[in-house]
Specification:
heterodimer, A: 222 residues, mainly alpha, elongated, B: alpha/beta, 5-stranded parallel sheet, 4-stranded antiparallel sheet, disordered N terminus
Chain lengths: 222, 224
């Protein structure tokens, strides 16, 4: 079973490497969105410090959703999704492998990119550390919740807009606690509560989402 | 294919595919109903019928990709939806879509398929599978560079997986194949039936199927 997880992970990472344009575009999108905000609101430092974490989180959310079609749509179109589900491996294991690969090529680089971006918003060292920790704990939930939307809208017309409408409301708690952790540090409080809640959101969705996704994939193959 | 082991008996039960009282509805139309079939080791079923008669739907129901409106499919006596993993491990399905990744090389495609099935994912085993489909010269090419027929042959290497899947469900497997490949596939099917495997296939072209192949003709439903 772990062999299958490894096989799916290796396959998707190899594909991401071959189609690295798609992956790089998502990261560029994240970077551009974050850069636009200071240009829009002006260079006032106190304002930037206040909106920094929220901006990074919203951009991370949008970038993560932008990359969702990669997760299942191509496999659906070329028939490899039905082969994955017929391979004799539990569908949940296949799904977990694909989500892990998705996080490694979107969530993980976004978390790393947030550190230099925090400088643009004049965040201090403590806030930057907290932001990175919050992203590391929260972005897995974005991949997991996003995968539910991607699986449900598979093969539908206008899937791109639909998946955004489906997934964005689900990710509101991640956004609130993610930005809240940094606010807490800025206000001299401990971010532990927010970070723990983010971790709980990721673990909770990791426990439940794969089953929902596997069921949604079966339905969309019919 | 000499030296291949017989299709193994598991839990003392011989491979057997049964379907009872199948009904398939697509959209508003009932394609077929009350369809029953039973295939035992070494048997081949040729599903025939005009366009839209429900051949592909029947094959997808048998593979467990499509839920029938009514009735059910059993493999070795167990409903397939209750033992999806065990069924998948014994099933080779080649549908309309080849299910290979354009951005991976031919060899990588075959190796990944083997790794996923928990079989031998080494390069040697993959090359052996490619040889049966006369693809060894293309092992390093990206799948996107192949012709339709060659892609089809890559998909068909799944039939040479080790351990050999007992049940082959092939939807138009001869499509886009050249004459030599048609013969190679025919030989694979014959060898598989001889080993005690089961084959369900559709074929539009006039292809000489194994003499023992039973024929199931689906008739397009007429609107009442």
């Amino acid at each position: 079973m772990s062999g299958a997880l490894w096989a799916v992970l290796r396959r998707d990472l190899l594909l991401a490497l071959r189609q690295r344009g798609d992956v790089v575009n998502v990261l560029l999108f994240f970077f551009v969105v974050v850069t636009m905000v200071p240009l829009g609101v002006g260079p006032e430092r106190t304002v930037l410090r206040m909106i920094g974490a929220g901006t990074v989180w919203v951009a991370a959310l949008l970038a993560s959703i932008l990359s969702l079609p990669r997760m299942f749509a191509q496999d659906h179109a070329d028939g490899s999704l039905e082969q994955l589900l017929l391979s004799g491996q539990p569908a949940t294991v296949v799904v977990i492998g694909k989500i892990l690969a998705h996080w490694l090529v979107t969530g993980a680089p976004i978390t790393l990119a947030a550190v230099p971006i925090a400088l643009m918003f004049d965040l201090d060292a403590g806030s930057t550390r907290t932001l990175a920790a919050a992203l590391a704990l929260g972005t897995p939930a974005l991949s997991l919740l996003g995968a539910i939307g991607a699986a449900l809208t598979l093969g539908l017309r206008g899937a791109g807009v639909l998946v955004t409408l489906l997934v964005l409301p689900l990710t509101v708690p991640v956004l609130i606690f993610g930005a809240g952790a940094v606010d807490a540090v800025a206000g001299g409080l401990s971010p532990a509560a927010d970070l723990l809640l983010l971790g709980a959101l990721s673990l909770g969705s990791a426990a439940l989402a794969p089953w929902a996704i596997a069921a949604a994939l079966r339905i969309s193959l019919e | 294919m000499a030296g291949r082991p017989e299709v193994t008996e598991r839990d003392g039960s011989a491979p057997r595919l049964q379907a009872h009282d199948l009904e398939c509805v697509r959209g508003e139309r009932s394609l077929f109903h009350g369809l029953a079939l039973e295939l035992a080791a070494g048997q081949c079923l040729h599903v025939a019928g005009e366009n839209g008669a429900g051949k592909t739907s029947l094959l997808r129901i048998l593979a467990g990709l499509l839920a029938p409106e009514q009735g059910g499919v059993r493999w070795r006596g167990v409903p397939i939806e209750r033992a999806r993993e065990e069924y998948g491990a014994e099933l080779a399905f080649v549908g309309h879509l080849n299910g290979i990744k354009d951005d991976l090389s031919v060899l990588e495609n075959v190796q990944l398929a083997a790794a996923l099935r928990g079989g031998d994912a080494g390069a040697d085993a993959a090359r052996a599978a490619l040889r049966t489909m006369a693809l060894e010269d293309f092992a390093g090419s990206l799948a996107r560079q192949l012709s339709q027929g060659q892609k089809r042959r890559v998909a068909l290497t799944r039939l040479c997986a080790d351990p050999a899947p007992a049940l082959w469900i092939l939807d138009e497997p001869f499509n886009a194949l050249d004459a030599a490949s048609v013969l190679a596939l025919r030989a694979l099917i014959d060898a598989h039936l001889e080993r005690g495997g089961i084959v369900v296939l559709t074929a539009h072209q006039q292809i000489e199927l194994p003499a023992a192949a039973r024929r199931l003709a689906l008739v397009a439903a007429v609107e009442p």
